[in-house]
């Protein structure tokens, strides 16, 4: 399922220190060893597409990067796995990037599962478009680097799409998990991480999906339609809203006299469980693709069973 990526690590013996401002959130941005463009390469599994890209770092981003201090410590880079394989399974531990725009409850659930040892991976970095959101605060409290995206004039530390790809490469990110991120993912990121970006949506796609269907608006639309069932959907991400291949769903009943808040609470409970299950399968290389392009999850207990 996953393709290995190798990068030179000019800062393997040091760590970047984020610029801190007691009145404002702080960010850890991408590393840069020189003004030359870093490259990325892959060793490709039979189920993946080979690619090689070059992404130059913008001068403004590089100026910001050069303000980061390097010291002889690996404390803040401990979350980045470096081709460590489980001796029992031979599966390499994965690095995850999570994108949030709000409270990040799914992000927290996945992180807690990582800490409990349920997920064979680590959250290497958090990406957000709202520096003050609950998800970003939780990341900073747990020493997870935070990147601001997309690029904003009033936020010089924010990154462009190309610089974001470069930053994720620096963190050796294998998979990207969108967890309530409300911006459209740029084509540069979709092309750089084929079949490696997942999103969770609070309805049974393809129903009640697409632009404008997010948060409480989804649950309101479900109730107004008279649908008897709803539930979360986890799907791979393409260049459009909610149109990528569906990977997993969980059915939640819509009961008589339901309110949008009540339905949202029941769906969210299932979201937390389902996303952890999918993240676990993803990091254990249990996602397979049928010949017709449909992704399936192979059972851990019985490799001949799929869901």
TrEMBL record:
The lineage of its organism: Eukaryota, Viridiplantae, Streptophyta, Embryophyta, Tracheophyta. Keywords: Chloroplast, Plastid, Purine biosynthesis, Transferase, Transit peptide. The keyword Ribonucleoprotein does not apply. Belongs to the GART family. HAMAP family: PurN. Pathway: Purine metabolism; IMP biosynthesis via de novo pathway; N(2)-formyl-N(1)-(5-phospho-D-ribosyl)glycinamide from N(1)-(5-phospho-D-ribosyl)glycinamide (10-formyl THF route): step 1/1. The keyword Transit peptide applies. It comes from the Eukaryota. One of its GO terms (molecular function) is phosphoribosylglycinamide formyltransferase activity. It comes from Actinidia chinensis var. chinensis (Chinese soft-hair kiwi). Pfam families: Formyl_trans_N. Residues 94-278 form the Formyl transferase N-terminal domain. It catalyses: N(1)-(5-phospho-beta-D-ribosyl)glycinamide + (6R)-10-formyltetrahydrofolate = N(2)-formyl-N(1)-(5-phospho-beta-D-ribosyl)glycinamide + (6S)-5,6,7,8-tetrahydrofolate + H(+). GO terms for cellular component: chloroplast. It is found in: Plastid, Chloroplast. GO terms for biological process: 'de novo' IMP biosynthetic process. This is Phosphoribosylglycinamide formyltransferase, chloroplastic. It is an enzyme of class 2 (transferase). InterPro entries: Formyl_transf_N, Formyl_transf_N_sf, GART, GART_AS. Its EC number is 2.1.2.2.
